[in-house]
Amino acid sequence: MSERIGQFFVASDAGRDRLEYTEYGSGDAWVVLLPAELAPRRMMQPLAHALAAEGLHVVTLDPLGHGRSDRPADPHAYSVTEYAEQVVALLDHLGAAQAVVGGVSLGANVALETAAIAPGRVRGLLLEAPVLDNGVEAGVLVFGPLLLAARFLPLSVTLLRRLTRPVPRGIVPFWAGIALDACDQRADALAALLHGLFFGRAAPSSKERRRITVPTLVVGHPFDPLRPLADAVTLADELPQGTFVRARSALEWRLTPERLDRAAVGLATGCWKAPRRRRRSGA
């Protein structure tokens, strides 16, 4: 299966920031996949392979502050809305009129936000473990100390980076390599990213979500306080074409992905078999 690495640039107040992506497969049936918070786009590679094997043209993206994309130390560069605008910029760069957009955790929220701010560009949604109202407190407990450490104890972040970066990714299991990549952070950029996500818009409002009419697969994790099952259930109920699937565990799609891969393939291929939606003109 062909894999091609590309890059594009987005404008900011401080200049231009570079984003990197990987393409799998070819054709006009586009799918864009986004990783969880702090993780590289490589975490989406197994699902990208499964989707591309069915004839879909899949692109995995490192949003700003993730993976091999730029990491500005400016909190204004980071928010769910900024990330959604980067997805739209990616589609423009690729010449893709529409795509099925999906992601995990933060990536799921970004996909949802993309459908809210650019409904004409989204063909369908693949959302794993979205984080809405029920995940706020756990998010503060987990990422709050990390923000404080990056801001006031930057040496701790630098030390972790120096310890983990030299480990060859080829000699460790795939998911261990993803965890090591997530530890490869710069303190100033990490503090800016977490600050931006904490104090920016986290997801579309319930009213906005109810207006998202594209076919959507929502996968919820049981026993995952950071990404509560209740948020996934609520979201699937709010979306007019939402379908909820309960994962057996938070690790099912990582360790035994076949069942959830089939559900994702079914949703994505079904979106591209259906006629393209026509937007009604305003009155």
Automatic annotation (TrEMBL):
The lineage of its organism: Bacteria, Bacillati, Actinomycetota, Actinomycetes, Propionibacteriales. Keywords: Hydrolase. Pfam families: Abhydrolase_1. Residues 31-133 form the AB hydrolase-1 domain. Signal peptide: none annotated. This is Alpha/beta fold hydrolase. InterPro entries: AB_hydrolase (IPR050471), AB_hydrolase_1 (IPR000073), AB_hydrolase_fold (IPR029058). It comes from the Bacteria. GO terms for molecular function: hydrolase activity.
